[in-house]
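User: My collaborator sent over this chain with a note saying "see what the structure looks like." That's all I know about it. Can you take a look?
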Amino acid sequence: MTDAILAPAAARPEASARNAAMQARLKVRRGQEMRFKLYGRIAIVTALMFLVLLLGRIIHQGYTTFIDYRISIPVTLDASRIDKADLGGTNFDMIVADAVLAKLGTKDDDFGGASTKVMQIISNDLGFQLLKQVRADPSLIGKTITVTGPVKADAALYYKGEIKRSTLPENRKLDDQQLDWLDKLKSAGAVSSGFNISFLTHSDSTEPEQAGVWGAVVGSAMMLFVTALLAVPVGTLAAVYLEEFAPKNRWTDVIEVNINNLAAVPSIVYGLLGLAVFINWLGVPRSSPLVGGLVLALMALPTVIIATRSALKAVPPSIREAALGVGASKTQTVFHHVLPLAMPGVMTGAILSLAHALGETAPLLMIGMISFVPGAPENLISSATVLPVQVFIWENASERAFHERTAGAIIVLLVFMILMNLTAIMLRRRFERRW
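Assistant: Without extra context I'll predict from the sequence alone. Here is the result:
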């Protein structure tokens, strides 16, 4: 009886020790969990900080691209200065410069130095507009018409505050007299600001104030059309065969491993392949949306195949079993039941692969899309440029105003890619089914 009474008392210290050890382990696990959550929050905050820093830098540098400063000036088309027989030989830029000097109340010297300095603050687009109007209607000669056009890029930078009077003269192209003229023109109401729609409607130009992204946008759209036309159906059908029809053996395992490896191949390798096969062997025109689309289709194929196979695997086996149970063939089961249910994932993967292809630059540089293209491509074999390459070209330009346009083009590219990603998200949410 005494031993039975004392046994629980002897066991109490052991139970207390086990309980204390359990509490210590529980405390350690809770501490580890709290630290893991803290590290996760720190990682998210760090990623958001870098994202805000990146986007903030781009927007801060590029938002001024969408602000345009234009000058409106009355110009007298003096018949004595215009050769009706050779309108192209008439110096309309000088006529516009003299009209600006008249607006400023300044006379030119005998050597035309003032007119030359005025032409450094107004775009030659005004003279080109005069030429077009006179060619279209020669009766304008002898009359006074108002012409409107952009100021020179450096003059626009001065109005935007990126060039200041305090800047050392050797670090700016405009002297103090030209800055005085710009202030006087603005105070007289000859210069106005507004949204720079020409940046979205003009193509590349050697003059920064006339350069736009329209040609690059059209080139990118044509190239993505070729990419989607090839990569999406071919990649989808290849994935369907590998996932639903191909026998599981050593050869299909080799194919699957190679597809996964191709998705990790550096993009410049695809550019070298396109240069060797499509341009040098097949003779596809260099620097065209067709050859660019072919190269990017090769690069997008592995991603489309992998995404499509993942979408097919997500369809429950019961769907296949039910279709086969009511007498459907294997082909009917796949194309009438499985693939439609997997289509949201297929479309999402296709759109994301195209968005990734849109941002590629290295393979396009290898196939010659670095050339200067002043207009939008007319067809798939015309010379063209694309948005990432346009960014690369402008960033390497010597003109300071092109760097501003670089950030503006990046903003356009980001908007393009965000719209594509939003489309993918909307398609997934619209057609997604939960099992």
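A starting point for your reply to your collaborator: The first strand starts at residue 67 and ends at 76.
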